[in-house]
Amino acid sequence: MLEFLNDLLWGKVLIGVLISLGLWFTIASRFVQFRYFGQMFKIFSGKQLFKHEQQGHLSSFQALLLSVAGRVGGGNIAGVAVAITLGGPGAIFWMWVIGLMGMATSYFECTLAQTFKKAEPDGTYRGGPAYYIRRGLGKKWQWLAALYSVLLLVTFGFGFTAMQSYSVATSFEDAFGIPTYYTGIALALIVGLIIFGGVKRIAKVSEVLVPVMALGYLGITLVVLGLNIERIPDVIVLIVNSAFGLNPAIGGGIGAAILMGVKRGLFSNEAGLGSAPNVAAVAYVPHPANQGIVQAFSVFIDTLILCSCTAFIILLSGIYDPATIAGQGGVALTQSALADHVGEWGRMFVSIALLLFGFSTILYNYYLGENSLNFFSEENQNLFNTFRVAIICLCCWGAIMDLGTVFAFADITMGFLALANLLALALLFKTGLRVMRDYEQQRKDGIETPIFDPEKFSDLNIDPAAWDQLPTQQDAADQYAANDTAKATS
């Protein structure tokens, strides 16, 4: 039954829905992910990105890193290897395609999460698909918001937490000979110390951890590319040819390439799942579109950069052989490939990278689960503490169990999770476009930092308390004029 549902969801339904909606969002928004690509870097370097509100809100930068912590995980190391094993090198091409389209999807889901976020008494925000479904679609869609929250809790809070623990523990056993239960216990202890500190502590850890792990993995890939620079064009040609079935002997042909590219691409970058909007909503930003642009960039980081790193490490290695790699697991294949490039210490490097990726993802998964529970009960601390204990136990249990059935079940719940969120995005797409156009109009009017004015959207069920500490649009216009005058004077 699990295999049948998996094949139905991922082999037929989701491929069509993801591609069609991704194209719709891209075309209807006039290719927002490409038009704003330069703006992604401007916002990334702007002071507003790092701005903290005095009451303790998270900055846009922290929210970005928290979402990257979730997107960048075992899927970037093990998932890419599995995609190549089962779908051939062409799966990487379709991962790129789903990533580029996913940037538009992520833009809209994160913009909507910011638009409909809810202010909390402690100075933080809550938001995500359950919130924009309830506030944006109204009471008659309350059932969809509740269903989404349950699926999010089961998929990320429980299933993927156990999976990440399993991946990290087995990788460490392979590289260092450390028994899986030792790794599971150590992981549980460290995770427990952090998650009891809430989202602010998780964000502070991610602020340090994510750049280290991402830049480290990118650095080792640049070394590999430098050692094999003359073969890079051949690998690119191999990927493209395989993507269109021109190398039928590699992998499972074009069908398997597309299937694995879409499935592993979505698993890695999570665009359309609605997971990233849960953390995108917590940021203090002047306009919802700001965080939409930043979160679109996080999809680019995950799929177009870090997934490509693993792909090139494997395909440039001497151990890559379509006839023999089928028997190797995802992590083991990446470890063997890097060891072929730089020596046996490459196995240890992959294990450490997977530890950092998996650890950051567990923290992210915990927050998604907490956000799901918060949707049903905002002040039940006993419920939250019970969930925290469950996460700690899952880190131990997941490290030592055979999780084949859990993986299959999590894939199915992830599929239904995506369908629920994509339905909401389709219904709220006009609202997302309206917010995007408000941002663009202000920029056309010469306002360098557009400000969101909830009064202009009074017909929407927006929480005014989530925006009452921002400067007004007139303040922004006055500031722009003052800056322009100062430049002219100097």
Rg value: 22 Å
Count of helical segments?
19
Category by helix and strand content: mainly alpha
Order of helices and strands: HHHHHHEEHHHHHHHHHHHHH
Total strands: 2
Q: What's the helical proportion of residues?
A: over 70%
Distance between the termini: 72 Å
Strands of the largest sheet, in order across it? 1-2
Overall geometric form: globular
Mean pLDDT: 80
Main β-sheet, in a few words? 2 strands, antiparallel
User: What is the percentage of strand-forming residues?
Assistant: under 5%
Unreliable sequence segments = none
Family: Belongs to the alanine or glycine:cation symporter (AGCS) (TC 2.A.25) family.
Pfam families: Na_Ala_symp
Main location: membrane
Organism: Amphritea atlantica
